[in-house]
Design a protein that fits this description.
- The structure holds two protein chains of two kinds.
- Chain A is mostly helical.
- Among the domains of chain A are: 113-206, no CATH class; 210-291, no CATH class.
- Chain A has helices at 3-25, 52-61, 72-89, 97-131, 133-139, 156-166, 178-208, 222-241, 250-293; strands at residues 34-39, 45-50, 68-70, 215-216, 219-220.
- In chain A, the strands form two sheets. In chain A, strands 2-1-3 form a three-stranded antiparallel β-sheet. In chain A, strands 4-5 form a two-stranded antiparallel ribbon.
- In chain A, α3 (72-89) crosses α4 (97-131), α4 (97-131) crosses α5 and α6 packs across α7 (178-208).
- In chain B, 54% of the residues lie in helices and 11% in strands.
- Chain B has helices spanning 2-7, 9-18, 20-29, 31-36, 40-61, 71-81, 100-116, 130-145, 165-171, 175-178, 216-224, 242-245, 259-274, 285-288, 290-320; strands at 88-94, 120-125, 155-160, 205-210, 233-237, 255-258.
- Chain B has a six-stranded parallel β-sheet, with helices on both faces.
- The chains are: A mainly alpha, B alpha/beta.
- Chains A and B meet through α4, α7 and α9 of A and α5, α7, α9, α11 and α13 of B.
Chain lengths: 303, 321
């Protein structure tokens, strides 16, 4: 074992020992989940999330109470989430088997979730529920009524197209899948083109037609005037940069150079926002580790 | 601050101890050489402490940074503020747990604001996990703090629908074509607040909380642009996507909460008006997360400056040779 490995093993074991001591041998504790157990009018037992503070107060009032309880499955969930968070972070040090396992678990869970969602939220309501509402009514969507409970056989067309897509998996006849694929691409391109033409291209031309001298309530507004001027200059200079029919010399060259500056400022703003977003993601994971798992902080006053 | 340092000395000790090997290396090989060949692991460690220590400090002391609302956050607030009690508002939760760190605080604040205004809230999701985000927010805000609000009368969850922008394109003219039941399988005809609601144009405001595609851009393209006189949209967006949305402001998008900063500003506005003397900490998530943002941004700036200084000094030396 190398010197570095020995140091890291010692650090990990110390951390593990500290966790065991804090979780099992201190009054503060850590990483436990509690539930509030109630019985509904139809006799179904319901478990709602409860805080450690509520549990402590209930026990102090009545040590024999069973309304607020420790919940093992949810506790395992907290520890599993903490473990996977640390496992994913371990990649920052170097690639390792724990990271690989966590990555595989994430992909597996995501794929399984998509399949379940695809069945219950797409196939059942959008296809089976349209072709055979009475069947779906019995086991999935009891609320189907009136006109929604009447079979709509036009939905056999998407069913046929869907089945044709699956022929891609066959060794012979997989050309059949090109027909529904062509339909999907054509429809998608049509919808997208319309959206972009209307929402972006035309609307953005309209949004760029601005007064250079802004008068608000009868008085000259210098800030809005400067803002509008900057927008117009920026749009024209950026367009000049992407206009390749003329050589970028003279006025055209100067405009395109200013356009590059505008583009750089835009990329800088995007980078700044991306950094902010990534720090927010890191912050929520660390907050989870310190609050929900280690119980070192309590910003929501739950304990 | 001094109290914090005295009581939490152990944390500062760990932070300082973690940089001991780097400090020894600097003494041994010189600061410039060490920084020039700095392993990226040290940058990660610096970032970890830059985020962790402020979270811990804010978690222990409860202190938050002052936030001055920007014009865009104020515009979002004003759009909701000018609605009357009972006005229908459509929420589209188009995000998942991966972006909840940025978007959940603004979702919480927006729903609280609408609940305080006694608006009728209709929840949909264009992302599969968006439906769970809706349930989380309802549990956190409406069920916890507004128990007088009744499902089906004051708020309804219509659940997730697949089809991305196709869903928007359909429901702006015919909501019933896609939504026949709510997320619990109950017929829309049996839900009191759905009576007379035939399409999204009947909503006084659409509030989209978006992490990407489909999201705010699609709502602008397929709902606001074709129906500019009947549909008004405000949005909360993740930072990565926000710069793409600025061109739509103000004509197609009157208000935007951009990233966690937008969430914090909006929380401040909601707390100032509806928070009372001791605001509930769950409505201050965004404000709390601005502490680590500040320190982490200062670190990024410092690293950029140091790297540039090293680059220009080494280039100057090469030229001198």
């Amino acid at each position: 074992m190398s010197r570095e490995s020995k140091i890291w093993t010692a650090v990990m074991l110390t951390g593990l020992l500290a966790l065991v001591v804090r979780a099992g041998f201190t009054t503060t504790g850590m990483g436990r989940a509690y539930v509030h157990v109630t019985q509904g009018p139809n006799g179904i037992v319901q478990e709602d999330e409860a805080t450690y503070r509520e549990y402590r107060q209930a026990v102090a009032a009545n040590p024999a109470q069973t309304e607020y309880r420790f919940n093992l499955p949810r506790t395992i969930g907290i520890w599993a989430a903490a473990f996977f968070t640390l496992a994913i972070f371990s990649f920052l040090f170097r690639d390792n088997p724990i990271y690989k396992v966590s990555e595989a678990v994430l992909i597996g869970v995501s794929a399984a979730y998509w399949i379940v969602v695809g069945f219950w939220d797409v196939l059942v309501p959008n296809l089976i529920g349209k072709i055979s509402p009475s069947m779906v009514q019995a086991w999935a969507i009891p609320g189907l009524s009136g006109a929604d409970a009447v079979p709509k056989y036009i939905y056999l067309v998407p069913l046929a197209l869907g089945v044709m897509l699956l022929t891609r998996l066959l060794p012979k006849g997989n050309w059949i899948s090109r027909w529904p694929l062509a339909f999907i691409i054509g429809a998608f391109a049509g919808i997208q083109m319309l959206g972009y033409m209307h929402g972006d291209f035309l609307a953005q031309i309209r949004n760029s037609i601005l007064p250079l001298v802004v008068v608000n309530a009868g008085a000259f507004d210098p800030w809005d005037s400067i803002r509008n001027t900057l927008i117009i200059v920026g749009v024209l200079c950026c367009l000049a940069y992407f206009f390749f029919s003329f050589e970028h010399t003279g006025v055209m060259g100067s405009a395109s150079r200013v356009g590059v500056w505008f583009l750089m400022i835009t990329f800088g703003a995007s980078f700044g926002y991306t950094v902010m977003g990534r720090i927010a993601l890191l912050a929520i994971r660390i907050e989870y580790l310190l609050d929900d798992w280690l119980w070192l902080i309590d910003p929501l006053q739950r304990r | 601050m001094s109290d914090f340092i005295i009581h939490q000395w152990w944390l500062l000790l760990i932070v300082l101890a973690s940089f001991a090997p780097l400090a020894f290396k600097m003494v041994r090989e010189g600061a410039e050489n060490t920084l020039r060949e700095l392993d990226r692991g040290w940058v990660f460690l610096l970032m970890l402490w830059a985020v962790l220590v402020p979270i811990y400090y804010i978690g222990v002391t409860g202190a938050t940074l002052p936030e001055v609302p920007s014009a865009l956050s104020q515009a979002v607030f004003d759009e909701i503020e000018k609605l009357k009690p009972g006005d229908p508002v459509l929420f589209s939760f188009d995000y998942d747990p991966a972006s909840a760190g940025e978007l959940a605080p603004m979702a919480t604040a927006l729903v609280k604001h609408c609940a305080e205004k006694k608006l009728k809230m209709y929840f949909i999701a264009l992302w599969p996990v968006g439906a769970q985000m809706v349930d989380n927010t309802i549990d956190k805000v409406i069920k916890a703090d507004f128990p007088q609000m009744v499902y089906g009368r004051d708020y309804v969850t219509l659940g997730y629908k697949s089809g991305n922008e196709g869903v928007i394109k359909v429901i702006v003219t015919n909501l019933r074509e896609l939504y026949t039941t709510d997320s619990r399988g109950r017929s829309l005809n049996d839900i009191p607040m759905m009576q007379g609601i035939m399409n999204v144009q009947q909503m006084k405001l659409i509030i989209n909380i978006s992490a990407g595609y489909p999201g705010t851009k699609e709502w602008v393209q397929y709902a606001v642009t074709p129906y500019p006189d009947t549909i008004r949209l405000i949005a909360g967006s993740v930072g990565v996507q926000s710069p793409q949305l600025y061109p739509y402001i103000p004509r197609q998008l009157p208000g935007l909460l951009a990233a966690i900063k937008g969430a914090a500003e909006y929380e401040r506005l909601v707390i100032n008006k509806y928070g009372g003397p001791t605001p509930d900490p769950k409505y201050m998530e965004g404000l709390r997360r601005m502490g680590p943002q500040l320190i982490a941004h200062l670190l990024v700036i410092a690293l950029i400056v140091v790297a540039n200084v090293l680059y220009f000094t080494s280039r100057g030396r090469q030229r001198a040779r």
